[in-house]
Specification:
This protein has about 300 residues and is an alpha/beta fold. It contains 10 helices and 13 strands. Strand 2 and strand 3 form a beta hairpin. Helix 3 packs across helix 9 and helix 3 runs antiparallel to helix 10. The termini are close together.
Length: about 300
């Protein structure tokens, strides 16, 4: 089970240009895109009832301004200076049900919630895991669930075992839920008289993944979609280790008190689930394991 409340869901590889031969998607630098960028349009146009619930100041120009750390493929990242990813596609489709267009504004992860609270952004979407701390400061609408996944170099040359990673060096992004998960596992190792896990923390997922590819670290821990994407682009240099575990809901963050708008967004997500758009988007980005059926406002989490 996931034990931490720090899950970040954000800073990771817009330009996963890794050491050695691995080249993952580069932000604005690729001559030819390998990303599935074609948009998927929801059926039926805007829902009048949901659109009526949009705050007047947002409805006035028909555009919702979204703060996002666009460095986290396949959820949100830049391709030719345009935000793409499954987070982007999902909310673009939901916004269409509200009669809104979207404006994605790149910001450091630490600025997403801050910007929502100050009113700089009208929503924050950056693979934000819903946790008690964020629920104190914002309204949140669930739309996806992400388990933790480990990855190793192809063939697992260091013999890393998910059930017993004691003494191994594991790459992880600072501020993610994976950090407390690793810390707890490391404490369990020490209690069992085994060497602690060497937790190698990085400010961005790009560098963390590069450390695994180069052999600097024995394994890595991140959100399931992140490593599915990385393995897919690694040209055989990486492989998933074991099965994903735990569940943590991603949420759209809104300014505290905007409960009606939150209900409208939840309803919009439900609408695209019902018409099949939601599943098509997850299939497009190969992240269907994270599908949910019941988007909710401020769901109970631990």
């Amino acid at each position: 089970m996931i034990t931490g409340s720090l899950r970040r869901r954000a800073i990771a590889a817009s330009a996963l240009v890794l050491t050695g031969a691995l080249a993952l998607s580069a932000c604005g630098e690729k001559k030819e895109s390998t990303e599935p960028t074609a948009s998927i349009t929801p059926q039926g146009g805007p829902d009048p009832k949901l659109a009526a619930m949009v705050p007047a100041d947002i409805k006035s120009d028909g555009v919702i301004k979204i703060g996002s750390d666009t460095t986290y493929p396949p959820a949100e990242f830049l391709e030719n200076n345009k935000a793409i990813g499954f987070d982007v596609d999902l909310f673009d489709a939901a916004a269409a049900k509200l009669g809104l267009k979207t404006q994605w504004i790149t910001t450091p992860f630490t600025g997403v919630i801050t910007g929502v609270k100050s009113g700089k952004y009208e929503a924050g979407i950056s693979s934000l895991t819903i946790n008690p701390e964020r629920l104190k400061d914002t309204e949140m609408v669930s739309y996806f669930n992400s388990p933790i996944q480990w990855v190793v170099k192809k063939g697992n040359p260091q013999g890393v075992q998910l059930e017993d990673p004691c003494g191994k060096k594991v790459a992880v992004q600072t501020g993610t839920v994976e950090v407390p998960d690793l810390q707890k596992r490391s404490e369990d190792c020490k209690k069992a008289g085994k060497p602690a896990i060497k937790i190698d923390q990085f400010q961005d997922q790009t560098t963390a993944t590069a450390a695994i590819v180069s052999g600097k670290d024995d394994a890595g821990s991140a959100d399931y979609p992140v490593f599915v994407d990385a393995v897919d682009k690694s040209k055989g240099q990486l492989e998933l280790l074991g099965q994903p575990y735990g569940q943590a809901p991603y949420g759209v963050a809104l300014k505290k008190g905007q409960t009606q708008f939150a209900e409208a967004i939840a309803g919009a997500y439900k609408a695209i689930i019902t018409d099949g758009t939601y599943q098509k988007i997850l299939d497009k980005w190969k992240v269907s394991k994270g599908a949910i059926t019941d988007p909710a406002v401020n769901p109970k989490v631990s």
